[in-house]
Amino acid sequence: MKKLTLTVLLIATLSTTACSEQKINEWACGHKMGQTRCNNAIVDADKNKEYDKLKKYLEISANYGNPKMQAGLGAWYQNDEHGEKDYQKALYWFEKSAKQGNHHGQSGLARLYYQGLGVEKDYKKAFDLYKKSAEQGDMRAQYHLGYMYAKGKGVQQDYIKANEWFKKSANQNFVPAQHNLGISYNNGWGVEKDYTLAFQWFEKAANQGDASSLYAVAEMYEQGQGVEKNLIKAKEYYTQACKLEKQKVCENLDNFGKEISKI
Question: CA-CA to 123 of 20 to 30 Å: which in 15, 50, 70, 235?
Answer without folding.
Answer: 70
